[in-house]
Write a structure and sequence with these properties.
Length: about 450
């Protein structure tokens, strides 16, 4: 990306804020990814593992349940002896491994529920399982036992007892010993349940050398786009369409290369706040109720919350925050005065509306390109969408619609490949077990 060649983005805070968003879908999941990241990294340090491995543990812990695409998949991970962990670990592995710099983290995530079984857990399905995956498992099983409503020191003995009792069968004994050693200090537990546990990790570990160059950002944005969109088959290609339409509109209206690069990222990530919305709502097979909307209306707010601190992302975050605003103040959630709506947000709103109208939803069918343009001209006339950008879309409808369709066809292929890859590793399981279908069973 030629935006600013020197831009380097720190990976850990970015991954951590994405995963934190996925923990907001239920109070039961409160700070789960942060806790596992802390535990895995601290136990890695207690075991005096090399710096690179401790960093991998922190990173893998921060995203380990990212493949739990629905609330049901996430909540079942809170059973101490959970059954069928592949239903979330496999999609997590497949998604993370689609971004080459995350190949090692992906492997740790893939096997993060494998039992040690007195050494038989050195492999699973004929593949080697890293001891780091086992340590991630232990960290995870500690974290799920914490009840945020109770004093942590009143819980620690029972947590330790349960982990020690499973030494050898579930966990590597040497790793259990490291946990016992770390768990002796009260401060270990206070850190673990601190609302600032992610900041504690960043203070204590050298993580700031884990950076992405700006050239790698679109690849990472593509990974997050999949995590966001693959949570429902109805939205599986949505952000790709928004990015393509947004970039075309921005280029045609005079944005320079730096501006269109930002629009690409904004299009891919504008709905990242949907990670706080249960997939069950996104895939619901009926018109959404007012209580569903109460949840959905949070998503642009959380898009901004997730993106706000990323270096170089100020405008991208602002556009994402404002993509559901309307010029007449009828949008959400900030309702700024019309004059405060930047061009980037106006373009993103047009690209988002255009793409959404051309997509099926559980409760309505897709519209065609020309029909869509008519609806949008009506919205511009009502002072909801920016008239100039809607007119530009209308003037170049065939070209822009072709770009959108091409991008969404490619994203559809990727979605099919994702489901096929999950099936490849677990052929006896239906792909719908990974992705809510909207038929009401998930
Ligand atoms: Fe898990
Ligand atoms: Fe977990
Ligand atoms: Fe949205």
């Amino acid at each position: 990306m030629p935006t600013s060649r020197s831009l380097r983005v720190e990976l850990y805070p970015l991954l951590s804020s994405i995963a934190n968003a996925t923990d907001l879908i239920s109070p039961i999941l409160h700070d789960h990814h942060k806790k596992v990241s802390f535990l895995a990294a601290m136990l890695g340090r207690t075991l005096q593992l090399p710096k690179a491995e401790v960093q991998q543990l922190a990173m893998a812990g921060a995203v380990h349940d990212i493949g739990g695409l629905s609330i049901r998949r996430r909540l079942e991970t809170f059973e101490f002896e959970m059954i069928e962990p592949d239903r979330h670990a496999l999609p997590g592995y497949v998604l993370l491994s689609s971004f080459p710099p995350f190949a090692e983290i992906a492997n740790l995530v893939r096997f993060h529920h494998v039992y040690w079984q007195q050494g038989r857990g050195l492999e699973y399905g004929g593949e080697a399982v890293s001891p780091l995956s086992h340590l991630l498992h232990l960290a995870d099983r500690v974290a799920i036992q914490i009840d945020p409503r109770q004093e942590i020191l009143n819980q620690k003995e029972e947590i330790i007892r349960r982990i020690v009792a499973a030494s050898g069968e579930m966990f590597i004994p040497e790793q259990v010993e490291a946990f016992r050693e770390a768990a002796e200090k009260e401060a270990f537990w206070f850190d673990l349940v601190s609302p600032e546990v992610d900041k504690i990790i960043q203070k204590r570990l050298p993580l700031d050398d884990l950076v992405l160059d700006c050239e790698e950002l679109p690849g990472l944005a593509e990974l997050f786009r999949k995590v966001i969109d693959f949570r429902s088959r109805f939205t599986a290609t949505h952000s790709s369409g928004v990015a393509a339409a947004g970039v075309a509109l921005a280029a045609k209206s005079g944005f320079d290369e730096k501006g269109t690069d930002k629009m690409l990222l904004a299009g891919l990530l504008h709905d990242v706040g949907k990670l706080v919305v249960p997939a069950e709502i996104l895939a619901k097979h009926a018109p959404l109720t007012s209580s569903d909307f109460a949840v959905i209306r949070k998503h642009p707010y959380y898009s901004a919350w997730i993106l706000r601190d990323i270096e170089g992302f100020a405008e991208i975050s602002q556009w994402a925050a404002l993509h559901h605003e309307r010029l007449d103040g009828s949008g959400y959630p900030y309702r700024p005065p019309t004059a405060e709506l930047p061009d980037g947000a106006r373009i993103l709103a047009v690209a988002d509306t255009f793409t959404a109208l051309t997509e099926d939803r559980p409760y309505r069918c897709a519209m065609t390109g020309p029909g869509t343009a008519q609806v949008m001209l009506g919205m511009a006339a009502q002072h909801k969408l920016d008239h100039d950008y809607v007119a530009l879309l209308h003037d170049h409808l065939e070209e822009f619609d072709h770009l959108r369709q091409t991008a969404q066809a490619a994203a559809d292929l990727e979605h099919q490949r994702f489901l096929a890859d999950c099936r490849l590793h677990a052929p006896d399981r239906d792909a719908e077990e990974y992705c809510p279908t909207g038929r009401g069973e998930d």
